[in-house]
Each structure stands twice: as structure tokens, then as C-alpha cells.
Amino acid sequence: MYKVVIIDDEPIIVKGLEKTVKWKEFGCIVAGTAYNGVEGMELIRREKPDMLISDICMPKMDGLSMIAALKSEFPDMEITILTGYRDFDFALQSIRLGVCRLLLKPSKMDELNEAIRAMLERLEEKAPLREEDFSEERAESGEQEEKEELESAASSFIVKNALAFIGANYAERLKLADVADNVYVSQWHLSKLLNKYTGQNFSEILNHVRMEKAKELLGNPSLRIGDIAEMVGFLDMAHFSRVFKKQAGISANEYRNTVSIPQKKREKEEI
Fold first, then answer.
1. Is 45 among the domain residues?
2. Domain total for the chain?
3. What share of the chain has pLDDT > 70, as a percent?
4. Which of 1, 98, 183, 210 allows an S-S link to 150, with CB 3.0 to 4.6 Å?
5. Would you state the pLDDT for residue 150?
6. Residue 143 belongs to some domain of the structure
7. What DSSP letter does each residue of 186-236 carry, written as one string?
8. Are 101 and 196 part of one and the same domain?
9. Could you tell me if 2 and 78 are in contact, meaning their C-beta atoms sit under 8 angstroms apart?
């Protein structure tokens, strides 16, 4: 039996899907339901369903980020999205991230049944073959490549959003858990993706962003170095100094001198 999870913030829709669809005839069982995205993500990680039917516009949940997170963590899970949005760009992004079907609310029963059949067909195509059935022809069929492309698209989407979040919040007391929550994946999974796509861990990325901003601020002679350290997220001046020297190869004060000398020269030339 294939396991199904249903997520929607409208209880009437959840109950309707759970009771109306003839799941047993499809060879499926509803493993659980949730009424918001956060609970839904916890349920999915616990149950590891084969299929997901979910609303995409729910409180505290960005739809595309949720899809990317799910397809990155659970690349074999098939997803049908229920939405009230008639947005072509959203639909295109969803398809690129590997969504099987996108249904507009209110959906007819035959549309829903077709979506379930489509997900089942995909699952059966991906089902592991018995060793005696495995052939070179199937190995070269390109199915694995397609799966890897979808997983890569979802993972790239997550990394892009994670880096954007770090870039916008570097001055805060930012932790890996904060970024992982923002892109709806586990800390472990995000750490793995950051290393894979950037070659750096979270701390290295955060420090790089902070040091680049510090370099910009050091060009302003009216700002004290201690103030700059605080502005880019460091509470400890000694820690800031160590990180800056490690990244830039020189101290913050020495770096300030290298950027202030050309500035003074330009000012004299203008006079």
C-alpha cells in the first residue's frame, strides 16, 4: 500500500479528501493529515509518505520553498498541489521543481482521481526492479538522470533561498537552525546542501558575508572598527579581529589604511 499525506488549512477539504477518495481501490492508505505547513512538514518527516496532496498557500509557509524542501529531502515522493492561484509563473516553477499535478480549487473528483493515477504511475515507474529484471537498457533509460535533475533543481532553489536569507540577516545572531527553518528543511539536510553547492559550511558562509560587508564599512572613516564589528553581527571585538585577519590576510585597521589612502589621493586630485 502506498502511504498518502494530506495537508490543507481547511478542515472540510482535508476530511473530504480523506473520506471521499476510494483510497483502497488505488492501493493507498492515508497515513496522516495536517492543517498547516509546519505540522505537515513534521508529519512528512515522520511518516515518509509516497504521495502528498497539499494546499500551497497556508500560514507560515512559502509554497515554492516547501515544494523545493520536500523534493530535495524526499525526491521519490510524488506531489499534487491544490491552489486557488491562477499564476502561470508559479505553475511553471512548481513543475520545474517536480510537482506531478497542480489542481485549481475547487477541484472536481475526476481531476483529483486523474492526479492520483498520475502519481501512482510515476511511483510504479520508479519502483526498484528485482535484480533479475535489471538490465543495461533500463540503466541507460535516463530515468535516473531525470530524477537527479529534479532533485538538483529543488536543492539549488533551497541553497539560493538560504544564501539570500543569510545575506539579509547576517547582522543578527544567526544560527543554522534559523536558516533551516526559513527554507523548511532540517539542519542536517541544509548543511549537506551548503557544502555540496558552495564548498563551505554555514559558519564559513556567514563569516564571508559579514567580512565583505565589514570591508565596505571600513571605507567610511567616521565609523569605529568596534562599531563595524557590531554592525556585521559580532558581539566580541576579539573574535571579529581574528575572523577578519583570517579572511583578509591583514587586520581590519590595516585594511582601512589600504582603502583610505586611495580615497585621500582621489580627494587631492579633485581639489
1. yes
2. 2
3. 83
4. 98
5. 58
6. no
7. -HHHHHHHHHHHHSS-HHHHHHHHHHHHHHHHHT-TTS-HHHHHHHTT-S-
8. no
9. no
